[in-house]
Amino acid sequence: MTTVAHNSSQDDRNSAIGGPCVGPPQPGAAWQWATRGLALVALGLSIYLLGSSLSSMGVAGCDESGGGCGSVLSSRWRSWMGLPVSFLGATVYLVIFIALCSLGPRASCRHRRVAWSVLLPAAVMAGGAALWFVGLQALVVKAFCPYCTAAHVCALMLAGLILAARPIGRDPSAAWGTAARTGLLVVGAAGLVLLIGGQVLMPGSTSRVVRGHTGPYDSGPGPDRTIRLAGTDIQIAPHELPIIGSPDADRIAVVFFGYNCPICRSEYQLFKEAMSRYGSRLAVVWLPLGCRPDGDGSGHDTHEADDEHDHSELIPDRCNYTLLAAAVWRHVPQRFAQFHNWLMTDAPPMLRKTPTDGIPSYEHARAYVASLIGADVLAQALRNPSLKAMVLPWRGWRHSLPDGTGVVPAVSVGNDLIYGEVTTALELFEGIERSLGIAPLIGETLSPAKGAETKEQTR
Which of 25, 38, 131, 274 is the residue whose CA sits 20 to 30 A from 327? Predict the structure, then answer.
């Protein structure tokens, strides 16, 4: 009897809202361990993604051809007003975990009230943000990051457990009533609106420019012309690679991309505007990734070998599209621009690989290539192992760039590299003109001093 009186008196003294402490109740041990475990997993994933974002080293298993986490982590939705969203997530999950630890078996009534006052709005923010980002991946980016999705699933389960433990309408006491809980939920909803509004109304820059080596990077027009990839010592020959425009154009950009990459497909439309803006002064080398030395292009769909002499084995479709492009370039190079534009432009729904995927199915893409170069020529090209030997170095070149991730898109322009999603034509124009010192056919140009300085570096 003395112990009960002592605890009641202690609770009264610890109450932050006056009067006897009536709620909230103490959750069970199973609930506490489940919620703490989910919070820790979500926190760990967020910290890992944050470290990847800050170090620019990429994430394990991320497909360099841009069909999955690469598209998500380089999209405009990866940040909020300049801050990585993984930082915001890690902060919320850390706060939730600390609050959950305050609900231990010896927690006083005051500590429980404080903990729940934190948990309710944090649960709304975590669960609502998870739904927001899953929706963005499914409907806007049209690609999924497994690490992000796992964190979002944990957040949804965590929010469900927290909100189910303190539903509105239970325990309508003066100290912990419906109005108080509703107010906390409104605070959480306000935080969620701030997140979504900030991303929609004030999108931050999703691309970044990295300065590579200084000095000459272009040997100049001619059959032996070479271009040095920014930040590396790798020299590539534009006359021998898939290119749109003349390999003897004044300036040449090099784009690493994936045909399945939604961001790459969107950015291609901006490059079409750039080609119109600069005309014959600019050419672009297009290097699709997806093929790996072991024959695994990290895709899932396969096509059967044409006959027993087919050396393509069962190459997944990301590599298939790359090989089709290489076949066009090798056998009918003047048709490469036509095929590339066709493949990078969203196909009619009946021709698409999936209903939500703009790229044509492999079967339709192969039939289109056959119409360009001939069915027999295509079949022979795909049986020839030298075709894959031609495209394999491109992946190594991409991994040799300073960030070392292999994620696309990545653009080498002069001595600069542009990583991530370029969202506007103006942003792309500024990067090209700053790095290559090229002037548009019509309109304002770079300042003479800056243009002369950049032009001098190319020779």
Answer: 274
